[in-house]
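Final paragraph of the annual report: two paired records, presented back to back.
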Amino acid sequence: MQHNNPSISEEFQRKFNFKGQSQSNDVIDVITPTIELTNNINIIRTRTSDGAVLTTATDKLTYLTHLSMMYDKNVTDTGSSFTVSCYINGVSQILLSLPCITLTAEKDNITECYLPNAIKIDKGTNISMNLTGTFSVAKVCLKGYTQEIYV
């Protein structure tokens, strides 16, 4: 790799203590550029009713790392379906689903961890809790992080 930027050569000489030595523009070949990313969980959301658990930012990348859902029904509840959905690459996807039997007392829960390969959710879209019928208790919890977009 060749470069014609004297500030790169100066920075290289300064960092690697090459004072007074003339360096060719090819010396940059021995350097491997790296990017260090530290992703800290900065999204924690909970929802207990039908609707958007989280609306993703339009100016940042959003990654989902953990998702859990639980429900509890009594014999008078008509709940038959409980899902969590989102958009990935422009397509609506069901992330988790718990089937239910209507007019039956039951409870269930599920937790998923998507680390180390967090799920990238489309910008400006919702992660939604979708209930069909009534539930005594229904809850979704999610964790994730956002990342700046550098152009």
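The closing record of the year follows.
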Amino acid sequence: MPTQAGGPDCEGLIHHVTSVPFAEQVPFPPGIHQTELSWSRRKAAMRLRLTQCEHESCAVNEEEWLVKEMNGKMEFLHADTVTGRFLLRGKTRIIHNGGHTKAQFWKPEEVRSLDLLPVNAASEDIRIPSALADPALAYPPGVRVELDPYGGVSYEGDCLLPDSHWRTCFRRAKGDWRTRNERTGDLFHVAGYTPGGILNLNWQDGGSHIFHDGPIYLGEDLNVLFIDPDEMRDA
């Protein structure tokens, strides 16, 4: 089950989206851009900032957009290990509905997350059987769930994990990353996130975390690669 609105984050703190209505914001520039995504602790909402724009008229690093809901896919570029901010690439549209603001995303058409999988990880023996399969039962060899859920899951690198609702977690005090399977509660300590994956955002539960719906690949370097679930189904 997804984390409930206002639920504790990975450090036990409470963060939830503000109930204050947002005024209508300027339109997001059309086209494919690099966008920084982060949680605004001051405004209690997700924040988008342009960091690179294909139009000369864009106000890079000057304008910001605050949203209460996100949906769609973006190419993942970078995770900042100091601030916990994500850098993404793709198209963005800001949708206003009264005081409720939503960000709709589209990934660049030419980017494929499966192209970054090693040959052994893409083999049929650990192919994800179904989006409806129990994620805990679909773990490949090399992944062992600990009895203590707070201790994290014991795993070896180079494993493809099932289509699920994955929560990314940045612990600001320690500057490290964890990824949690929200359907099972299993927590994976990870080194970070691999550039070039497809982040399938489905965030509307009112919390301060960024979620990925789909499979993930844990590399030998213990970095997470976000996999587009539609690519897996079409493979």
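DSSP finds one helix and 15 strands in the chain. This concludes the annual technical report; the extension proposal builds directly on these records.
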